[in-house]
Design a protein that fits this description.
With about 170 residues, the protein is α+β, with helices and mostly antiparallel strands. Helices cover about 50% and strands about 15% of the residues. It has four helices and six strands. A two-stranded antiparallel sheet has the order 1-2.
């Protein structure tokens, strides 16, 4: 079928369709880039906050010779539990065996082995966090959280960092 023999209306419709498709693809690309920029910004913020919390843990680790390990651990956990950032940001501490050492929101989980705990999409995110620390020392873990405050699961990103201390 030769396009030269098409009626003008059909040619215009094709041209408009191609233009609209092109505009839609450009807009989708812009939305993807915006999402990527927002995620990168969020990751940078989370990483910066975790670095600050890690510095606080280091402070208590250095206090062990003066105040003892048990008191340093207790004070460090209390200090980290009280920290918040952004609208809903908080910190927790888990050990390298997936045991939750401190969680300011879900205190009933403290001491629990989180190895087999899955997120809303079935990912073993606690295992991913420990693996990231073991393999890289620190890094990002993305997972999906379904909490009672949400109607639908929400994507979350955490920056995890290993420490030298047993606090």
């Amino acid at each position: 079928m030769d396009i030269r023999h098409w009626p003008v209306a059909r040619k215009l419709a094709l041209l408009i369709g191609l233009l609209l498709t092109t505009l839609m693809l450009i807009e989708l690309n812009s939305l993807y880039r915006l999402y990527d920029e927002l995620l990168s910004s969020r990751k940078a913020q989370v990483q910066e906050q975790v670095q600050s919390a890690s510095s606080l843990l280091d402070h208590y680790y250095k206090q062990i010779p003066e105040i003892g390990e048990a008191k340093a651990q207790e004070q460090a956990k209390a200090a980290i539990a009280s920290l918040r950032y952004g609208k809903n940001g908080y910190f927790w501490i888990n050990d390298m065996n997936h045991k939750l050492v401190m969680h300011p929101i879900k205190q009933k989980l403290i001491g629990k082995d989180m190895t087999n705990t899955q997120d809303a999409s079935g990912q073993y995110h606690w295992q991913a966090m420990v693996t990231t620390v073991k393999n890289q020392g620190e890094g990002f873990v993305e997972y999906t959280y379904k909490g009672p405050q949400f109607k639908a699961p929400k994507d979350k990103v955490s920056f995890v960092k290993g420490g030298e201390c047993s606090i």
